[in-house]
Amino acid sequence: xxxxxxxxxxxxxxxxxxxxxxxxxxxxxxxxxxxxxxxxxxxxxxxxxxxxxxxxxxxxxxxxxxxxxxxxxxxxxxxxxxxxxxxxxxxxxxxxxxxxxxxxxxxxxxxxxxxxxxxxxxxxxxxxxxxxxxxxxxxxxxxxxxxxxxxxxxxxxxxxxxxxxxxxxxxxxxxxxxxxxxxxxxxxxxxxxxxxxxxxxxxxxxxxxxxxxxxxxxxxxxxxxxxxxxxxxxxxxxxxxxxxxxxxxxxxxxxxxxxxxxxxxxxxxxxxxxxxxxxxxxxxxxxxxxxxxxxxxxxxxxxxxxxxxxxxxx
Length: 314
Known about the structure:
Helix content: 10-25%
Order of helices and strands: HEEEHEEEHEEEEEEEEEEEHH
Distance between the termini: 62 Å
Number of strands: 17
Largest sheet: 6 strands, mixed
Radius of gyration: 29 Å
Strand order of the largest sheet: 1-2-6-3-5-4
Structural class: alpha+beta
């Protein structure tokens, strides 16, 4: 019973500590008139706004754009009315993308800069709360046909094992496709010996999908974030998707400790070094040649000793 009470106390303390933590507020790094600034990503705000103090610091007299002949009446979430000084078209750069957008300048704004939901909807800037990262989407792409599948985070898969992963659905432009729909995904990439699909998947509103991938090798594989793993094709209205009538089957792979590779003999090492020949190729550097030789020596057990040796390979 003492152990149960101890676990309850630890669990209660953890929940209390979590409740006291302030939620992380997302900020966007941007460039304005040569100044690197941080703007609050706020989906609860309808407009883009800036404090008058920040406006005067970033845009001194003589460097300001002409104030628009517009007025606005805005209140903060607390209900207090914000004191406006005007609306200005302001140029900025976010992740090397340039925009000119109308900013409302307020005297009593608590933040330096706030990007509102109007900007997100118009330009497709999104926030992923799971990874706490900002990304670009294209919301108005109903006619897209194929896209690439990209790792949303670094993943590690055990030898001869499968893992359910979340992948970004991106176009060649680098934008995510925020178009909830059904699609067919296939994992196949030369850089990584992994396989998956073809599988019927669903793209969510964040421009992501989930698919199970399989590590085909006998060693743990780590795939870096943003690596491309496969392709995905949208299912159109005219495509027919019927019920797949197959017997359900589960394959359990027995995990065994792999025997460490035996040490290569000097004779076999000499045989490799004497017989490795490289064709003439200007793009093949000495470093690449050495990397290939190191790979042969590391996996020497999979390679025959001679043309007449079939003990290691067939």
